[in-house]
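Give me structure tokens for this 141-residue protein.
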Amino acid sequence: MADLAIGQMVELASGALAIIKYIGQPHFAPGQWVGVEILQGGEGKNDGSVQGERYFDCKAGQGMFLRPTAMSLTDRRPTAPQGINGAAKKGPRPSSVLSSGTGRRISSVPDPAISKRMSMNSASPTPASRSSMLRVCMLVK
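Here you go.
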């Protein structure tokens, strides 16, 4: 227990990497416990709170409390998530969301061609009918 400190990277028995967020005696069980935020390779059980008591903050499902003997200090660092073929997964795709109140989409990706586009709402000429085109052609001859 003396070797563990808040902020240290640890490897859990499952192989998951986590960072220590809490060390102490919580209210939910006797003895010394370590609260960790799972970074890679596993799923947690909480968000740093248990039975209404907050011990640390992390995303829901990434927090976990363990006995100090269930982990070991590590120099490993999280790596990019791996895809099916072993290649690193790409980050999330850019999103576009509706702007509040206007109904227009706002994209997180800049569009250099946006100034060249015509408005979808601008008036366009009504297509001429064949009969009016024939009359014009006949008048020209």
